[in-house]
Amino acid sequence: MGFRRMESVRMDRGATPNKSFDISTATSWVRGRGVYVAFVVLVIFNLIATPNFASVATLSTLLITVSPIVLVALGVALAIGTEGIDLSVGSVMALASAFLPLYLGYGWPIGLSVALLVGALAGLVNGSLVAFVGVQPIIATLAMLVGGRGLAQIFAGGQSLLVTDPVILWLGQGRPFGIPAPVIVAVAAVLMVGFLVKRTTFGRYVVAIGGNRSASYLSGHPVRRTLLAVYVISGLLAALAGVVATARLGASDPSNIGLLIELSAITAVVVGGTPLSGGKVKVMGTVMGALLIQLISNTFIANDLPFTWAQVLTAAIILVAVYLQKGRGVV
Amino acid sequence: MSTRPADTESVGGSPAWRERLFTTLQRRGAIVVLILVVAVSAVVFDNFLTEQNLENIVLQGAFLGLIVVGMTFVIISGGIDLSVGSMVGLGGILAALTVQVSWPLALILPPLACGLIGFGNGLLIAKAKMAPFIVTLAGLLGIRGLALAFANEKPIRIGGGSPFDWFGQGQILGISVPVIFVVIAFAVGGLVLARTSYGRIIFAIGGSEESARLMGLPVDRTKVIAYTASGALAGLAGALLAARLSAGDPNAGLAWELDAISAVVVGGTLLTGGAGTMSGSLAGVLLLSILQNLINQVGTLGSYAQQVVSGFFLIVVVVVQAYLSRKERS
Fold first, then answer.
1. Which of A53, A159, B107, B318 is the most buried (most CB within 10 A)?
2. In angstroms, what separates the C-alpha of A100 from chain B's closest C-alpha?
3. Cα-based distances in Å from B236 to A134, B185, B232
4. What ipTM goes with this model?
5. Is residue B90 part of a domain?
6. Which of B134, B146, B304 has its CB closest to that of A312?
């Protein structure tokens, strides 16, 4: 298992950029086929069954609602790649949402920086606990999940504050060239994380640590620093998602923003073909996974089906997708 | 692990004694902390040790406690069960839906149905070799969806006067019925874990599943039983909670899986499996319950601070455990 992983790593590195892109795309197509097939099937079903499905409005609603999930799922995918997990992303979104309006009075750059900084700080706490103290990621980030939202509500005074700054609002509601701003933010984040994973030594370290942490440590990789960075990045991305969600609402809402989003994010990552046992990060698979679960709920809403059954179907799809991947030796 | 004489001498004092203390603290840390917290609270808060308040604490933890018994087995076997919170919701709804038909059915159906779902979880984990985290995460989503769908997303009231109410609100010798259920569950669970071959096999699987399999232990069957029991207990907790509240709430037990995991971990059970005690888990539940009670007593702390304190408390306990187990190893 570990050997094959190293092989594919070397393949990527040795080949010319163009060729290695082909190879990795092909592998992800073959191995993570479940999520792509399911997505196509659902799109075809919608084209037939859902009125007005093939419209710009439907597409942009889907993409806008999926953007925060994609943002946090990217961070969770990195954490899972190191054989960890980040359960705290929803609460970090709430923290960023609570802090954003507090400092907007000093101008949007300050407000935005503070919100992102709070997210990075939460990630730093998670990462320090995981990397230096040796707490299991699920417990460290569980504590942040429980405590983070409480902190957010304390700082927000338990209430929702209006956001009126035009630049911040644009992040949630703007439409440059007709493309919703949250989608642009999400695409930019996908490209950056994709670049990190595929093209940098940091990405290699993430995969190596997830594959075999002690081997990675013995090879002289900066294991602790990498783990710390992974959780900080995840915190940053979650904070960004919190800012976008707040901007979309036009107000902070620490009680509800990002509530239970960690479940959607983990689902997206896992359905997208990233094994929970680490050693692999599927960026495009994660995006497809997020699109798939969002499309499921949108399909139910658009067809006036009881929404709760969408949850049941999502559960079934997780099981089927993971079972199929297991057969292909991914999980 | 191997302590050469030179090492032990260099530590000074009586290392064997110190080592034993560390081990005890790590394994029984929750009980030590529990005793400390109770002692301090009794001194600081006048009405902490009143009968009414103690009853409140125990009753508050009773429903979570039932889940924790099953979760302890699952975690010691090296797995995890995220679906229990949703099963509490489903159990309550099933009870509320069937109580008009016949009240014994309302008591029996929830554990039966949730046990069956747990059995399915167990089969997928043991036979299909899927990760427990994923299988039960799917359970968390799907079962909550089922509960909401059955209930039309609204709580279902249970009309008064049915004997079913007694199981949530009644008392035997001044002790609430749910508390009696949870005491029995912990007693039986503790005995099974520590004194039966089934319990030994759970530990063996958690220590090394491969070794357990090679020794010819019934690994698959043991795991399936653990997840079935976990589901059945969660269903029972849901039914009793519905009886207590006179209503089945499809959102009952939301995020309880996290509380249950916290309680088990605070109780000194390792999430990696292979080590843990039922008494530790009991102490973990009581600690969480007391913590909530104390925060309510202080009064000036809002419900938000409660979450912060809970999160902080979990981290402190785990960090101390990590520190002690590192000490123990070195």
1. B318
2. 19
3. 36, 11, 6
4. 0.77
5. yes
6. B146
